[in-house]
Structure formats: structure tokens, C-alpha cells
Write a structure and sequence with these properties.
mainly alpha; 13 helices; 65% helix; Trans_IPPS_bact-type; Squalene synthase HpnC
């Protein structure tokens, strides 16, 4: 979820008591994501910074002072961990995924198949949903699985949406077995326009993400109060991006579709009828 742009940060639908811990989780994830993705630092420096970030997490979770590098992250996070007993393992999973983002570039192995890619999403996206459910006191297995489906679908949607951004960075999130089956070569994508083979592959990927999102959608009836309505809009926002990818002929290799204010009435209408 690049920059966690679909993350519900302290919105008007969020209960006031939960806004500080949600914001703390957001800034933890956002800062770590930026360490991995933004700026011009070489990979070795990014890995060193993430290691220092992880050390601050360990100290914070233990109730000890963190370093002075990220006070706006670990000060609020320490309060949230203490007050809400946030599971540290979920925060660790996020850092593991961001570290993998740095290591797993074009000169390394990509993602062999859908299961391999979902295993990454389970650390890069699913922890966010599970942390939010923890705050709302929703802990049953069915809800956790549906949360994973929604968050992993959002991550996949970001991948299909951001093809034009990820390829220049050496990030190739298209499952290799499906790519090979359709005759899509990663190297050729850098020089060629949208090919029929890539279009067919992306159509398949869009359908996969949509099915995954729909499988998690019943969670909106389990999350209490206004948060359930916010989750409806998160789900509809992801589905709307998939609509826009299809409207482009799945040509996100050269264009990045986004949701705008003009899409909000349709999303609200669809959310109402979920």
C-alpha cells in the first residue's frame, strides 16, 4: 500500500478515542515505507536505516527510550502500545516487508506465483487491518481472514495501479508463472508499449484482486459503528480503481489511474448498498 494512501487516518468516521493510536500506527508504517522507497539513498543505507528503525521499535515496545531520530513516530507509538497492547509481531511484519522491498529488485528473484506474492502481502498489508481490528476489539478468525483479504487486495490493486512507477525502480510484482504463461517478459516492458499479452495478464490480475476484495467485503458488517461505514468506502475505493484500470484497457504501464472527487458519489451509492 504505497504511502498507505487508502489508510483511514483519523477521519470524521473514526471514534475520537481511536484517532491517536490509528495515527501512531499510520506514521510508523508511512515512515518505514518512505525509508524503503523514497529519496536517493543507496540500498545499503536504506537497510541500515530500517535496522535502526527496528531497534527503536524494540526499545519502544519494551517501554524503553527510543533514539532521537524519529520522535514523532515512536513517542506516540509507545503510548499506543502501552494503552492498547498493540501486537508487536504485526509491526515487525511490516518492517520485514519493507526490508524485502529493498532487497527484492530486478537483480534478485521476483515472485514465483500468486501464493508467493500473497505471502509478501500478508506482511506488507494484512498487519494494518489486523491492528485496526485489534483496536476495535474484533478478534474472531473469520473477521481476521476477511480483513487479510481486503488488505491484500488493496496491496495488489496498488501493484496493478503503479506499474509505471514500480518498473523503473526494479520492482516486478506480476507473478512470474502467469507472466510466462502469457508471454510477458519483464525486460521488454521497459521498451515496448502495451502489448496484447500484457493486457491479458493484467485483465487476469484485475479479476483476481476483485475476487479477493469481494471475499473480504462481508467484514463491513462486523466492524462496529462508523468504522464499518469507513471500511465500506475503503472497499469501494479499491474496486473503483479496478474499474479505472479496466477503462484504460489495463494499460497502467504508461498511465496511473486514481480516484477523484468525481468518483465519490458513486462510491457512496455502492457503499450504501453493500
Amino acid at each position: 500500500m504505497r504511502h498507505y494512501e487508502n489508510f483511514p487516518v483519523a477521519s470524521i468516521l473514526c471514534p475520537a478515542a481511536l484517532r491517536p493510536p490509528i495515527a501512531a500506527i499510520y506514521w510508523f508504517a508511512r515512515t518505514a515505507d518512505d525509508i524503503a522507497d523514497e529519496g536517493t539513498d543507496p540500498p545499503a543505507q536504506r537497510l541500515a536505516d530500517l535496522a535502526a528503525f527496528r531497534a527503536d521499535l524494540v526499545a519502544t515496545a519494551a517501554g524503553k527510550p527510543a533514539s532521537t531520530r524519529w520522535p514523532k513516530v515512536f513517542g506516540p507509538l509507545q503510548v499506543a502500545i502501552k494503552q492498547w497492547r498493540l501486537p508487536k509481531a504485526l509491526l515487525d511484519d511490516l518492517l520485514s516487508a519493507f526490508t524485502q522491498d529493498i532487497i527484492k529488485t530486478r537483480d534478485k528473484a521476483g515472485y514465483a506465483d500468486r501464493a508467493d506474492l500473497l505471502a509478501y502481502c500478508q506482511r506488507s498489508a494484512a498487519p494494518v487491518g489486523r491492528l485496526l481490528l485489534h483496536l476495535y476489539g474484533v478478534k474472531d478468525a473469520a473477521s481476521l481472514q476477511r480483513s487479510d483479504a481486503i488488505c491484500n487486495a488493496l496491496q495488489l490493486i496498488n501493484f496493478w495501479q503503479d506499474l509505471s512507477l514500480d518498473l523503473p525502480r526494479g520492482r516486478f510484482y506480476l507473478p512470474q508463472d502467469r507472466s510466462q504463461r502469457h508471454g510477458v517478459d519483464e525486460a521488454a516492458l521497459h521498451a515496448q508499449p502495451q502489448s496484447p499479452a500484457l493486457t491479458r495478464l493484467m485483465e487476469e490480475n484485475v479479476a483476481w484482486a476483485r475476487d479477493l476484495m469481494r471475499s473480504g467485503a462481508p467484514l463491513v458488517h462486523r466492524v462496529p459503528g462508523r468504522a464499518g461505514w469507513e471500511l465500506r468506502l475503503v472497499v469501494q475505493g479499491g474496486l473503483r480503481i479496478l474499474d479505472k484500470i479496466e477503462a484504460l484497457g489495463c494499460a497502467t504501464r504508461h498511465q496511473r489511474p486514481t480516484v477523484s472527487a468525481r468518483d465519490v458519489p458513486l462510491m457512496l451509492w455502492r457503499a450504501l448498498w453493500m
